[in-house]
Design brief:
- With 155 residues, the protein is mostly helical.
- It has one domain (24-153).
- The protein is 47% helix and 6% strand.
- It contains six helices and two strands, in the order αααβαααβ.
- The chain has helices at residues 29-58, 70-83, 91-95, 110-123, 132-135, 142-147, and strands at residues 98-102, 149-153.
- Strands 1-2 form a two-stranded antiparallel sheet.
- Helix 2 (70-83) packs across helix 4.
Length: 155
């Protein structure tokens, strides 16, 4: 029951490392991911700022003493909830026509998506790690490999 070309159908495809992906599934993924990340960073920054101001006003400024590190929490839940949702993508990824799946083709659960986000933000501390994507035939970054995730073009 190997259906390697049906990543979006109801039939469950074969395990990714054994099943070749269609070339269209990976076309332009790196460029699109860069733009999607920039869009998502803007959205997370706006959400963090709004939440910071609202919580500060609701607590008459007391919360501002405890909330300086709100961005990581917002980013964690933003990625976890949007990627594990029915669209399988963050808003930035949807704009760029991308989706995230587990390597076996199944949807990404919340915990995998959230761990992927944590690994992504840790990768920013070591920028040369992103060069791994240039060596990978399936255009996956190291944090994608560690989380067991692949980013594809929508079918």
């Amino acid at each position: 029951m190997s259906n390697a070309n049906s990543w979006s159908g109801t039939a469950r495809p074969a395990v990714y490392p054994l099943a070749p992906l269609p070339a269209s599934a990976l076309a332009g993924v790196r460029r699109r991911r860069i733009v999607a990340v920039l869009l998502d960073l803007i959205l997370v920054t706006i959400l963090s700022g709004v939440l910071f101001i609202v919580l500060g006003l609701l607590t008459f400024g007391i919360a501002w003493l405890f909330l300086p590190s709100l961005f990581p929490f917002v980013a964690f839940f933003y990625n976890g909830l949007t990627i594990s949702g029915w669209r399988r993508a963050t808003p930035g990824m949807m704009v760029m026509d991308l989706e995230m799946r587990l390597v076996d083709g199944s949807p990404v659960p919340f915990l995998y998506a959230a761990v992927h986000a944590v690994l992504f933000y840790i990768s920013w501390m070591f920028p040369p790690i992103f060069l791994f994507s240039l060596l990978s035939s399936d255009k996956r970054c190291l944090h994608d490999v560690l989380a067991g995730i692949i980013v594809l073009r929508r079918a």
